[in-house]
Structure formats: C-alpha cells, structure tokens
Amino acid sequence: MKKRILTGDRPTGPLHLGHYVGTLANRVRLQDEYDVFLVIADYHALTRKAEKEHVVATRQFSRDLVLDYLAVGIDPEKTTIYVQSDVPSVCELHLLFSMLTTVPRLERVPTLKEVMADENLDIASYGLLGYPVLQAADILHVRAHLVPVGKDQESHVELTREIARRFNFLYGEVFPEPAALIGDVPTLPGTDGRAKMSKSLGNAIFLCDDAQMVEQKVRGMYTDPTRVRADIPANPEGNPVFAYHDAFNPDRAEVEDLKARYRQGKVGDVEVKKKLARALNAFLDPIRERRAYYAARPRLVDDILAAGAAKVRPISQATLDAARTAMGLGRSSK
Ligand code: ATP
Ligand code: MG
Q1: 22: which DSSP letter?
Q2: Residues ≥6 apart with Cβ < 8 Å to 213
Q3: Does domain 211-291 fall into CATH 3.30.420.40?
C-alpha cells in the first residue's frame, strides 16, 4: 500500500506564490508516489473570525481553492480533495486528542503568538488555542506519514508527532508518527519585505492575479531602502526581489548577471523588477490557462468535493474506531 500524505489550506482567500513554493510544488511532485489527501480546512478558518459573513465566505473560498489546486497540476484522480466539515469524525478524534495535550504546551506553539499579533487579537479563543490539536486530528485520521508544509507549520507537525506518540504509549500502536516535508523555499517573504508572504498581511502575489496586477505588485515591491540610486553597490541577499528571482526565474544566467551588477552598482531596481515580472508571468501563464479551463466547468468542483468526502469518511471512521477500541471505549454503535 502506498504511504499517505495529508496537507491542506484554510479557505480564507486565494493561494499565493508562498503557498506554491512552501507546499503546493511538493504536493504535485509526490502525487504518484503517495496517496495524497488535501483538506480544505474550513473549521480552521473559524479560529480567528467566527462572524457569519466570514463563515459563509469560506464556501466560495473553498471552491476557489479547488480551482487553484487543479490549476497548479493537482490531479483529482490521484489526490483526494475534501472539505474538513464534510467529515465530522475528525472532530471526535480531535476531542480524544485534546485530553493528551496540556494548555501550556499549546501556549508554547510559536504560531499562536504570531497569529495573535498579525490579527490584533488580545486573547485566544479555546478554538484558536486548540487548533494545532485539530490539525493533528486532520493528519492522523487518515494516518498520514508525510505532511508537506511551509516552515511556519513545522511546529504543528511536531505537536502531531507528540500526540501520536502519547496515544500509542497509552493505548497501543494506532498512529504513525508523521514527518514534515518543508518546501524548497521554507518561507517566501512578502512583497513588502516582511518575513512571510501571507494573505492576511496584504503582501501576496496570488496565483490568480492577472499579468498587469503582477507587474503592478512587483513595481511596488520593497527593495533595499539604503540604495537610493542605481549606482550604489548593494547586497542581493535578503532582498525579496532577488528571493523571488531565485524561486521563480528559470534563467539562472540572467539572475546571476543581475546579482553581479547589483553588487557592483550597475543595475537599477527598475530593470531587476521588470525581469522579475516577466519571469513571474511566464510561470503563472500556464496556471492561469488551466484555471480558466476548469472554471468553465462549474459542476466539476462539486463533483470533486463530493467524491473526496465520500472517500475520506470511511477511512476516518475506521481510524476513529481503531482509536476508540484501543482506548477501551469500544467502537461507536452508529
Ligand atoms: P497566509 O499564511 O498566507 O495568511 P494561511 O496562513 O491562510 O495563509 P495556511 O492555510 O496557514 O495559509 O497555509 C497553507 C500552507 O502554505 C501551509 O503549509 C503554510 O506553511 C504554507 N505557506 C503559507 N505561506 C507561506 C510562505 N510565505 N512561504 C512558504 N510557505 C507558506
Ligand atoms: Mg498560515
């Protein structure tokens, strides 16, 4: 039997270049070798905002995520795509796991502080504090071995391993200890120079942005603020414009030439950015084309999500039954 992958995204907006290099590229690359499961984590989307408009908006974002997946080359014949709330047995597993994790352990998860700072939250809800436990249930209800994620999520996979270990120690071997697989670019910086491209920070280039929008965003990108004239030698390291060139410009000779001239003060930001916009648009063009192709088939997304949920439900239920039996609760009688 093939080993399994589980990973996913919150339906809170379109996918961006950071998602691509952090996790999407690995998902596409590994879909022949592994059984891949992609969860559209709508419950996770509620951990920060639970107002009704926000809940309702996740429906459309979920559909858009499916189009983004298809556009980057995820094949629904090989990869099972489902919406988290369509498979409620994961919540029961989350409840069981919540007994195996302490509050101080969850308070130490580094993303908690980051999310609270980014979203101006003073206190965490019970759901926000516990969302890495729900994520552990997402990963372990399909008994996944590998979790392709960006660097920011590594600590959640570590917690998942701890929960699996604790469960297996207390009740017997039910769960594998999954490993994180970090992308080629562990964390892609934002267009504003902040450490992470993020839809919540407004510093993202989306996979569905059109060519003009990409040019506009690249023109406005943060570069070295000390370099007020093009003839000032400067360091391309740590400059997000060059980080994007490294990640997306396949013309290595062009990138090396730009870096060399940048170091010597012989190239202006305008040229570096023009070439970046061109490279990004060349990368995004086939993604845009495929997206338009699939978007013209409106039933497709519904069919994919219905088939995905139907495939995951029995897998999830079997895991839950195994966990309950191991614990001595007995199988659920439904
Ligand atoms: P954002 O962080 O952009 O607001 P998000 O937090 O809603 O988006 P998640 O659903 O948490 O996105 O992340 C989906 C996946 O994409 C995760 O594996 C995460 O690590 C990865 N990821 C998100 N942003 C980046 C980035 N800038 N660089 C690398 N990987 C990223
Ligand atoms: Mg995130």
Answers
A1: I
A2: none
A3: no
Decide whether any atom of ligand 1 lies within 6 Å of the 31 Cβ: no
Q: Which ligand is nearest to the CA of 25?
A: 1
pLDDT digits (tens, 9 = 90+) for 145-194: 999 999 999 999 999 999 999 999 999 999 999 999 999 999 999 999 99
Fold of 4-189+298-327: Rossmann fold (3.40.50)
Backbone angles phi, psi at 91, to 5 degrees: -70, -35
182 three-state secondary structure: strand
pLDDT score at 203: 97
Is residue 188 lining ligand 1, measured as CB closer than 6 Å?
A: yes
The answer to whether residues 107 and 65 touch, using CB atoms and an 8 Å cutoff, is no
Q: Which atom of ligand 1 is nearest to the CA of 16?
A: 3
**Considering only CA atoms, which of 277, 286, 268, 295 is closest in space to residue 213?**
277
Give the pLDDT confidence of 252-311 residue by residue, as tens digits.
999 999 999 999 999 999 999 999 999 999 999 999 999 999 999 989 999 999 999 999
DSSP, res 225: T
Every domain of the chain and the residues it spans: 4-189+298-327, 211-291
Can you give the pLDDT at residue 2? 94
Cα→Cα distances 199→10, 11, 27, 235, 329, Å: 11, 11, 20, 28, 42
Query: Which residue lies with its CA nearest to atom 26 of ligand 1?
Result: 18
Cα 167 to middle of ligand 1, angstroms: 28
* Nearest atom of ligand 1 to the alpha carbon of 24: 16
This prediction has a pTM of 0.94
Pocket test for ligand 1, best of 152, 158, 187 (most atoms within 8 A of CB): 152
